[in-house]
Prior knowledge:
By secondary structure, the protein is α/β, with parallel strands linked by helices. The protein is about 50% helix and about 15% strand. It is globular and about 45 Å long.
Amino acid sequence: MQFINRWMARVIPCIPRTLVQKISQRYIAGATLEHAVQRMQGLNRQGFGVTVDVLGESIASLEQAEHAVDAYLQTLAAIGAHGLDATVSVKPSALGLLLDRQYCEQAVGRIVQAAEDHRSAVCIDMEDVSCTDMEIALFSGLHAAGRDVSLAIQAYLRRTGDDLESLLAQGSSLRICKGIYLESSQFLVTGAQHDRSAINPHFLRHVARCFDNGTFVSIATHDAVLIRQVLALVEQRGVDRARFEFQMLLGVCEPLRDRLKAQGYAVRIYVPYGKDWYGYSTRRMKENPAIAAHVVKAMFLRR
């Protein structure tokens, strides 16, 4: 798998931009808010909740960060106006975290306030390890102030067990994912650098702690084996279905998400939109060789 990832990383820059755009339509709602609203409405009609990500991570100025804030405020206004079952997910690095932490705190606070005004909520995405402490501190400050905010944590990090205990003591709502950033092995649980399934026992243990603590948890994975293990845990512990939800990326593992919904489980779809569709698409292809292979196959078949 590691070889495939490296090979795909070299091939992806050679893929025509127009082809990436065509394939990415399955995984991205579109470039505009109007496109995102249409996709959210469709998913809501099918019985799915939504969490929206306005695409864009790398910024070089607070002016760019302010544009990102405005995009989230407009998104939340649209969520309220259309009565959508939708939250937003924010990456603090896109909101100035690495440029001015005080500005970032204020920016996220403005977004959280808008979410509360429009009967929505905010999840703070976890990024690479250089941001972990700052993002936990950002979340903890907002949570202590009584704001409606949740935090993503990454099961592949060694530190997550300790972080989880601290967060549970605060009564936090959490999203648990495996983790996608390329990190040094010193930061990762044993085996995670070469085998994604090595993360599963840690992921499952973290979910179990949330269940035992009574906190609401979003279970963000497409791993069918892991999902079966989570459901077995739900059955063993008699966990109320109102205390958790599954989260999946737009366009990924749709038969699995449909089965979960048909079985009566809450499923929320992570819906990205925005002008940075190309950057998001290429990152996802590097993370998911199956998507990249589909694109490469399409590139050669059209010749």
